[in-house]
């Protein structure tokens, strides 16, 4: 390890260390590292057959002056900060410890590993000879067999457990019951975001009583309505994704939820009741596409969607909703609306969303008269997609009145021979003409 308190430039530091690493002298170590004292630029030399390769590693610095290190960890080594080349575990750990020493505080870390042994060894290397001080704080950890990782270090000195307890965002791949127990959740006192994908996890009961979780993604997990009730009781929850969960049949437990902002239940084949979403005052985004929602329940939900910013209703079928929307004195505040492959009697009710910026009507039964009405009403529209609209025959000239339009997508078969595409392009509008 070398450093120069006098403060040489990073460029000169790189030249000097690269030159030293390439020297064939027999006393030159095969694997070594050096760090710049002010920038934490690390030069790491590793062997490959008869030559040495030298790599630069520069942690990113956040606005508050703290450093962030990203690492992909395996038994074959560590890829640091987006590098495609792996370096030895010990060299990578030394670099992180040096960065922490320079910053005089733990380094923020984003780690990804599907090997429990490699991750445990890396954590041991980080905390070895650290004097009991934390070297890293885990902003995000993506791994498998999290329960096994905790159990492996539970009976050892608490330094590795101290690292794991700092995790803010935990992504579990192939999770099972032992990866998410009440004891584990209780230990993760800083956990704010939990993402679970695949595996055999069949219950979220371990989350009961959690006061720190703000963001939960359990897409494709075999949860039940009992779990939905549990999630609805988490008053601090801000974001929930339950896409593809067959056990979700109703969102009634979220009636009047005080803080939920983002909810996605796309592809839940048994979901029928969503009317309660209209009672959530903080809701900004909802995705209930490809569900079994009935027309009546959807209309109840639409009554309360006046303050929502993003709404996705793809692949739904519902009856007349225009009367339901127009009975309100206030207009929709939605800025992004997706109605891809939606079947409804007419689409003129969308004109009540006067703040709309992005509109997706692909695969609908939209006709030219409705398109003209929408263009005359939605004066802030920036992006519109009307591909695969089999009933639509248009020149797109109605879009010329839109001052903010930036992007248009349309099928070639929907375009009249004499159209306004050239004029739109001349104004800087990106026109995508699809072959479908």
UniProtKB/TrEMBL annotation:
Put simply, this protein is called Leucine-rich repeat protein (LRRP)
GO CC terms in record? mitochondrion
Which organism encodes this protein? Trypanosoma brucei brucei (strain 927/4 GUTat10.1)
